[in-house]
Design a protein that fits this description.
Elements (H helix, E strand, L loop, with lengths): L8 E3 L3 E3 L7 H5 L13 E7 L4 E4 L5 E3 H7 L1 H5 L1 H7 L5 E8 L4 E3 L15 E5 L3 E7 L5 H24 L4 H15 L5 E6 L4 E3 L7 E3 L10 E8 L3 H4 L1 E4 L15 H7 L13 E2 L2 E6 L2 E8 L4 E7 L4 E5 L5 E7 L2 E3 L2 E3 L4 E4 L5 E6 L4 E7 L3
Antiparallel strand pairs: 1-4, 1-23, 2-3, 3-6, 4-5, 6-13, 7-14, 8-11, 8-13, 9-10, 9-12, 11-15, 16-17, 17-18, 18-25, 19-24, 20-23, 20-25, 21-22, 21-24
Length: 372
């Protein structure tokens, strides 16, 4: 059986409501502001590609699971080179995120084993200024940092039990936790980084502390990030060392993994140097029909930014395998099919080659593919 349509296939929208830390950026970018389904709601993430994604046939309008299309024609969709190197299980996860803070986390480096944990190579591209922590601060006492995290974790557990026994309200526990965290100051041990638009952050090596932060005055929209990663469930890859004093409404807590976080985090000062991981896009070509910049070049995935002037057409080859396109700005067309702003598309390898045509305005796309 061969793939029924060579594309482009639109990725069906999969938006995740997040009342506490989401916003309207994703809804607005996708042109869904007037959709009553999303009226007044905050969205924290959209899955632009995942194992569970469904694709829309550009010819028939039929909706089919990505997994079903791969199973029907693995080489036709993924490409033989991709199939030979990565197999038919497409473990590529691409997310558009608007986040206003998450826990202190670390991912396991490749080649290291620890309990249930597996690596999750991950990279970020900042679409607007934001705020995050990254790596241990130079001169940090790891022993002191360890004591602080263990102390916070113990006291959060005690306060949770007090709420659930009826001694404290959740509001009282949150106030006590906030005061204690301020006095212990875990932020004194990590780098706090102000992100700029177009910052590229490469977390694929693992072992590096990271978290998104929030500042309602300077960054009211939070962190607007395009994430590309290997598709691994959070419960198997994200070790929380500090959950920022957050209680569930019933006084419960999300799981933390302080001992594993501390056992995994990279202590070598050279490996915590920000310049190793944070950079700007690298211009590959800049010609009349478009500019191509490299964002990520990793063993697991690669992402380029394509900027195409009004009226121009940029040719692309699928000889090495399928492409995933996300339209960040403007509107494009491929073989007469419109690619709308804020939407994602899969170009099967069987298409062979194609040209991205910009309309009356410049178009900016993010192209992700697997390195073969």
């Amino acid at each position: 059986m061969t793939i029924s349509n060579k594309g482009p296939w639109q990725v069906q929208d999969d938006l995740i409501e997040q009342p506490s830390w989401g916003g309207r950026y994703i809804v607005d970018l996708k042109g869904l502001s007037g959709d009553p389904v999303w009226a007044g709601k905050k969205v924290g993430q959209s899955y632009e590609l995942a194992k569970a994604s469904k694709l829309i046939d550009s010819v028939s309008g039929d909706v089919k699971p990505l997994s079903e299309l791969i199973a029907a024609d693995p080489a036709g969709l993924l490409g033989q080179k991709v199939l030979d190197k990565f197999g038919p299980d497409l473990s590529l996860l691409i997310k558009l995120t608007q986040a206003k803070g998450n826990s202190f986390q670390v991912h396991l480096p490749e080649g290291k084993t620890l309990g249930q944990w597996v690596p999750k190579p991950e990279a970020w591209f900042y679409l607007a200024p934001g705020l995050f922590t990254f790596g241990l601060k130079a001169g940090t006492s790891f022993e002191a940092y360890s004591r602080v995290l263990h102390t916070i974790d113990d006291e959060m557990g005690r306060l949770s039990r007090e709420v659930q026994s009826g001694r404290f309200t959740v509001e009282e526990a949150r106030a006590q936790a906030h005061q204690r965290i301020q006095s212990l100051d875990p932020y004194a041990y990590v780098n706090q980084v102000e992100a700029h638009a177009d910052d590229v952050i490469d977390l694929t090596a693992g072992g590096i502390h990271h978290s998104w932060e929030e500042d309602a005055v300077r960054f009211p929209e939070g962190n607007l990030v395009y994430e590309v990663q290997v598709d691994v469930p959070d419960g198997r890859c994200s070790m929380r060392g500090f959950d920022k004093g957050k209680f569930l409404d019933d006084g419960g807590l999300r799981p933390t993994h302080v001992a594993d976080y501390l056992a995994t985090i990279e202590q070598n000062p050279a490996h915590n140097e920000l310049s190793r991981y944070i950079r700007k896009p690298l211009v590959l070509t800049d010609e009349a029909n478009g500019k191509i910049e490299s964002l990520f070049r990793t063993a697991h995935f690669a992402t380029d930014r394509l900027t195409i002037p009004s009226g121009a057409a940029l040719p692309q080859s699928l000889a090495d395998g399928f492409h995933h396109l996300f339209v960040h700005a403007g509107e494009a067309a491929i073989d007469g099919h419109t690619l709308a702003q804020g939407r994602s598309y899969v170009l099967p390898a069987a298409l062979g080659e194609y040209a991205i045509e910009a309309g009356g305005k410049e178009v900016v796309l993010l192209k992700t593919y697997l390195p073969v």
